[in-house]
Amino acid sequence: MRTTLSIALALVVAGSLASPAQAQNSGNIFATATVLSSISVTGNNLDFGNVAQGQIKTVAPDAAGAGNFTVLGQSATPVVLSVTSLPADVNHAGLPLSAWQYMHADVNSTGGLSAAAVAVGSTFTGTLDASGNYYVWVGATLSAGAAVPAGSYTSTTPITLQVVYQ
């Protein structure tokens, strides 16, 4: 009897020390990602055409000869565009470039746009159109020195536009 009483007492004590049952407290989430198509950037050179010795010539971003970039990527996706290099001259110290300007849009037209100053490090944003295109036009002023030898010149430093998804 004494053993039975000890066992019963042990069970009562053990039951009072047991922790109460709890509801389950957990949940799940998953990792997701959308892989976007690669971005390509193509362009046409900024072309001042014929320039006389001693002449100052400006090509505006919306004028014939303006440099232009076409960006192609994932449709309707925001992008960040950065100008990472601009030439100081057209491969001759007597042919300096200045007064850089640009325009940008998600339509292939400069109509209704305003030119803005641009420099190395300039950053702007846009959204690719439904076909995944975006457009940037670039212009500048060329000052031809009076002593620059006649000939064709091409800058050795490119005009570089970097584009990344936002």
How would you portray this structure in words?
The protein has one helix at residues 2-17, and strands at residues 40-44, 56-59, 67-72, 78-85, 97-105, 116-117, 123-127, 133-143, 160-165. With 166 residues, it is mostly beta strands. It has a domain at 46-148 and 157-165: Immunoglobulin-like. The chain is elongated. 17% of the residues are buried. The model has no long low-confidence stretch (mean pLDDT 91).
Order of helices and strands: HEEEEEEEEE
In DSSP terms (H or I, runs of 4 or more residues), the helix count works out at 1
CA radius of gyration is: 34 Å
Distance between the termini: 80 Å
Structural class: mainly beta
CATH topology annotation of the domain at 46-148 and 157-165: Immunoglobulin-like
Overall, the morphology is elongated
Largest sheet descriptor: 6 strands, antiparallel
Number of strands: 9
Helix content: under 10%
SSE layout:
Elements: H1 2-17, E1 40-44, E2 56-59, E3 67-72, E4 78-85, E5 97-105, E6 116-117, E7 123-127, E8 133-143, E9 160-165
Antiparallel strand pairs: 1-3, 2-8, 3-8, 4-7, 4-9, 5-6, 5-8
Entry summary:
This protein has one helix at 2-17; strands at 40-44, 56-59, 67-72, 78-85, 97-105, 116-117, 123-127, 133-143, 160-165.
Descriptors:
mainly beta; Immunoglobulin-like; 6-stranded antiparallel beta sheet; 3-stranded antiparallel beta sheet; 1 helix; 9 strands; 10% helix
